[in-house]
Amino acid sequence: MKELVRKVYEETGIPVTEPGIARVIAALLSEGEFWAAMPYAKAPFNVLAETVRQLHERGYVYFVGSKVILTEEGDQWLAKNNIHPLIISTCKACEGKGIELTRFLDLLSAFKLTVVNRPPSIVDFDQGYVTEETTVARVVMMAQNGDIHGKDLLVLGDDDLLSLAAGLSGLPNRVVVLEIDERIVDFINEAARKNGLPVTAYRQDLREPLPDEFLGAFDTFLTDPPETPEALELFISRGIAGLKGPGCAGYFGVTNVESSKAKWRKFQKRLVSNLKVVITDMVTNFNIYENWNYLLDTIRNDIEPLRTEPQVRWYRSTQYRIETLEETVVSNEPATGVEIYVDNEALVYTRKGEE
Amino acid sequence: MKELVRKVYEETGIPVTEPGIARVIAALLSEGEFWAAMPYAKAPFNVLAETVRQLHERGYVYFVGSKVILTEEGDQWLAKNNIHPLIISTCKACEGKGIELTRFLDLLSAFKLTVVNRPPSIVDFDQGYVTEETTVARVVMMAQNGDIHGKDLLVLGDDDLLSLAAGLSGLPNRVVVLEIDERIVDFINEAARKNGLPVTAYRQDLREPLPDEFLGAFDTFLTDPPETPEALELFISRGIAGLKGPGCAGYFGVTNVESSKAKWRKFQKRLVSNLKVVITDMVTNFNIYENWNYLLDTIRNDIEPLRTEPQVRWYRSTQYRIETLEETVVSNEPATGVEIYVDNEALVYTRKGEE
After folding, report:
1. Cα-flanking dihedrals φ and ψ of residue A340, to 5°?
2. Which of B91, B262, B282 lies nearest to residue A93, judging by beta carbons?
3. What percent of chain A has pLDDT over 70?
């Protein structure tokens, strides 16, 4: 086991631990399939991929498409290493979100109709959108926390089109979207006009400071930051700059798919020590993404499961809710030099020597 | 509104914000009752109590037992201040826990039988135990995360008797309980003996260092720390000292009932900056406590709802899961001078001038 863990670290450069890799294997055992294991492995995609490759090289598993099947040697090795399948008990009613959409089913239907011709995801801006159920669930989570009814909402990046779901709910006073992709800005403004919603989108690169008119103007923000510590801090700090003051709320997702536990701690340190906000909620696997068409072209493809289109919605993230406090740090500086999209834990990062 | 917020702060000494108090009132509006509002108010008990007292003094609400009912003036004041009821949408199937007990119903029955003569809670050690469903849900959460099957589990303080539920599940290799209350130590050891469980309890004051034999010996710990930043860091750090190394997991609950958002940030800073662990999960209202017999004797009683026995299980907490990393700080120093039970956000803290 120690040898396998060392190899995974050497090949990926991502911090891993023995219990962490044991959990990855336990998730593969309980799900029996590469993509379905991702939400429970709680490790970066490249760690899962490399672990599976290492298991395969040692003759412990074989593949049928994306299925990962144990050999007899594999079975013995697991017993020796005291690794057992996870016992998955996610609530079927809410998919683990902890909230139900019962009171919002009309909103869900209206939202689905409104976004039927949405712009497709493109790789340029690290896009990929959550299911429509997830978007409505985000509205529900805000409604349960008193963060949307009668409130002013700021959305930083919105390929999920949450602004439209929020507008259609009739709850917020006003929704402003700042978004870099012109196609999405236009789509939101057009849909808002057609439906008479209090929603306006503007084109904005979030590396630039927030325009003055949006400083201190909102009760709640929502964003989905790219997953480098610098980008996360930058996006959250733009959100905070938009808020009216202490006691306001921010929502955003963070994945295990592209961020190790060590990187998560860096994120959390920036939140609670640098920005001085409090994390009030973290809902595991709350955000469920639709699969996107460019996936297999952009990831490593050295084992069969990675050449097989996923049949499940495997890309998920934990929804964080934060609150601002008296001591929260407010700033609005330009950050034009920050590399915001890719580090070596990113999905699209390939091992040295490939390509 | 500003005036009311200032009064709540003056009377309680607990940091509050305008949006925070608005959320407290929104929870009262959606639940219509003092105790039922607690799990959704996300504020300390004394903040909720003082807010209700201030609303009552201004003629905005009146009481029928623990019911808090809006007057006409109150209704107008809310409209003026843009405060609306929370839209509570907690999943009914899992009570918001995100996991289901379906595969563990036999365990739940066995656990209930085993603990039927458990020692009653006493005030001396800040006791109060969670429902048996909650205890089993903790086992399920560990099982889903690969933290219990075949593992060695350390329980620091166990009036919940989780050690017995864990033992009865047949999943862990070994369970050790360190507990200050001799009654509980004896009860656990007796039940473990009768049922042939791999569970042993020892009497231990956690302000003392862990005995050498328990250092670096466990895969997972669980505790329910008293809610001062010092006590939380102390208990978690004892748990960490018991773990085998990086990648191990710890579980514990933190309430809003006795800890403001500002105190939560202090907790989180100690976790991610001092101890250098990562928070992987935070499940809101996961832990649901049974009501206990000494409640009304120990809290403020200046408004009618506080003289009325709660009919709902109102005391809840967020379940945190943390993981250790390469960089996690391990220590096992004595901490005999630390005041571990009470600060001014505690349930039993009474306003100056009372009593």
Report:
1. -100, -20
2. B91
3. 96
Nearest CA-CA distance, residue A183 and chain B, Å: 33
Report chain B residues whose CB lies below 8 A from the CB of A245: 17-18
Q: Tell me where in chain A the CATH 1.10.10.10 domain(s) lie.
A: 2-80
Q: Please report where in the chains the tokens 């209700």 appear, as a residue.
A: B52
For residue B213, pLDDT over 90 is answered with: yes
The CATH class of B2-80 is: mainly alpha
The pLDDT of residue B224 is above 80:
yes
In angstroms, the separation between the Cα of residue B48 and the nearest Cα of chain A is 16
Give the burial string for A212-237 (b: 16+ CB within 10 Å, else e). eebeebbbbbbbbbbbbbbbbbbbbb
CA distance readout (Å), A191 to A196, A200, A293: 8, 10, 24
Task: For residue range B88-127, list pLDDT tens digits in order.
Answer: 999 999 999 999 999 999 999 999 999 999 998 777 776 7
Residue linked to tokens 């608005």: B22
Residue matched to tokens 């008797």: B161
CB contact under 8 A, B91 and A99: yes
Assess A84–B contact: CB distance below 8 Å, yes or no. Answer: yes
For CATH 3.40.50.150, the residue range(s) in chain A are 102-323
Does A2 lie at the interface with B, CB-CB under 8 angstroms?
Answer: no
Out of B23, B99, B247, the one facing A19 most closely (by C-beta) is B247
Q: Which CATH superfamily is domain A102-323 in?
A: Vaccinia Virus protein VP39 (3.40.50.150)
The yes-or-no verdict on residue A148 having pLDDT over 60 is: yes
Instruction: State chain A's mean pLDDT as an integer.
Output: 94
What is the rounded distance in angstroms from the CA atom of residue A247 to the CA atom of residue A219?
Answer: 9
With CB atoms and an 8 Å threshold, state whether A261 touches B278: yes
R_g of chain B computed on alpha carbons: 21
